[in-house]
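The records we work with from here on pair a chain with its fold. A complete example follows; check for yourself that the lines match position by position.
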Amino acid sequence: MTSRRTFLATVLGGSLAAPLATRAQRAGKVYRIGFVWDTPAVWPHALEAFRQGLRELGWIEGQNIVIEYRWTEGHFDRLAGFMAELVRLKVDLIVAPTSIYTGAAKQATSTIPIMSETMTKSLELLQATIPGLTRVAVIWDPATPSHAPGLKAIEAAGGTLGLRLQTLAVRSAAELDGAFSAIVREGAGAALVLSTPLFIGEAKQLAKLALTYKVPTMFGPREHVEAGGLLSYGPDRSDLYRRAAGYVDKILKGANPADLPVQQATKFEFVINLTTARTLGLTIPQSVLVRADEVLQ
């Protein structure tokens, strides 16, 4: 990525990373931004919030702004080519929603995932949901840049909460069945699944495996619970993407990217799937139910 291009990323744990460089807005100019993500079907409400946020700030697609969408559709080997293509198109800004995309943009060294507090909360909620829980499996993807440092935060949180962790690296959908088999074999009482496009794309498969192996699960994105997972705790994606639109607006109007601070999410949501709980034979404590932002029946 050349230094003339701006790079904006939303990373795991709900942070907005400050971009690196930009040019001041010019009257009459039609700005072009790149948006790289998996598919429009992943977090569609967040994508619409981003578009709506731009419209509310006066940016109308096809009039004063053009968005170059690039969809990997689960094929992350396409990322390098997409980023190179966007550079050739001389886009003014690139929006990359997670760390796996920021790494491909080659400017991600300025993006520091912030996830310690979120992961601590997720483990706390698992403990509260499953009394007597002592061992938790953590499913992560080595190809996702934020997961390795995230594991360190989880290990620290686990130690504080008195939980023993079983970490399971999963690099493809084909490895998920083996991961759940290992969870049962090692006696973990629940699984925490870190967020990444690979796992979001396999939300239904993850939910099915969790029910098959009778493993209570905690996720970040609520889409996993809607697909049949037990619990989710994470940032409100619509709010994050709406705020990302505000960043785009400031940058295109000439704000110095170096002056734009990294922001953490301010809105989080805790979602419970009661149907899944019943299937697993779990009774969710009332003290946990009252903390939920939404309970799916």
